[in-house]
Each structure stands twice: as structure tokens, then as C-alpha cells.
Specification:
Length: 171
Amino acid sequence: MKHIIILAFLFAQISLGFTQTINTQKSKITFEVSMGLGSVDGTMQNMAGTISFDSTKLEQAQFNVCIQPATINTDNKKRDKHLQSEDFLEVETFSTTCFQSSKVIKTETGYKAIGKLTLHGVTREVELPFTFSNNRFEGTLKINRLDYGIGPKGTFFVGDEVEVKVVCVVK
């Protein structure tokens, strides 16, 4: 009986595709948002989750990845503390930001993961174009922070659109 369970587990893993482990040290999200007369960029780290990706079996590809907004770093501790507060990310209440794919397709320039992004307690469908090379996924998308209820509306000081770049390295 034990051997049947082990074989069933192995078959399930094979049929789902190759599951990769995220290298948390090399994976991160970078972002850029206009603030005042310039822009601010920063990072978030501690990426975790599961990735099952085989370019020959895209119908089985799955991304279920989260990051911790409390790791936000803009090289300004006072600003980081404010971004973590109830005025923006509310990291005490919303400790993770997650993406879960529903479909992955091939494009002319790489791939596109379509799925749900949950940020600040709000879930919306997004499309994340990405490339994959040498165990490294890289993608960029733009989100409107107001769609996720982040920060004040109608302010000149903080732009509404945030450019997000995902770098996920797998082992």
C-alpha cells in the first residue's frame, strides 16, 4: 500500500509539470511611482510560493507566488514606515500580496501569465507578460494603486500608476 501512495504522489507531480523552488535571496519585486516632481523606486522581498512551469506544457503551468509588503524599501526609512502604515499598504492587516495564475500563454516576446493579483485585500485579474531564461522569470506590469484602495485619491504628490517589475529566480 505504501508503494502505491508513493507512486500516486510521483505521478501527480509528473502530471502537474516540474515544480520549481523560489530562490528567496535572488527574487524580488521592484516598483516605480511618481511622487511630487520626480519618482520613487523601491523593492519588496521574501518571495515565496510555488511555480510549476514547463514551456512545452503551458496548459499545466501554474504560478502561486506571494511577497510581503512589510519588506518595502525605498532607501528612506521614514517614507518606508509611512508606506507600511494605514495611509497606504496597511501591512499589519494585509501581510501578503499574492498572484495566482489561471492561464499561461506563449506570446511573440515570451509568455503571459493571466491570473488574480490580491493586493491590499482587493483581488483583480491582471496579465503579466514575462520571459524565462536560465531559471529566471522576469516580467513587468502597471497597476493603478487606487484600484486596490492604496493611498489617498486625487493627490499630486503620489501618482496613481505604479510600474511593477517581478524578478523570480528558481532553483
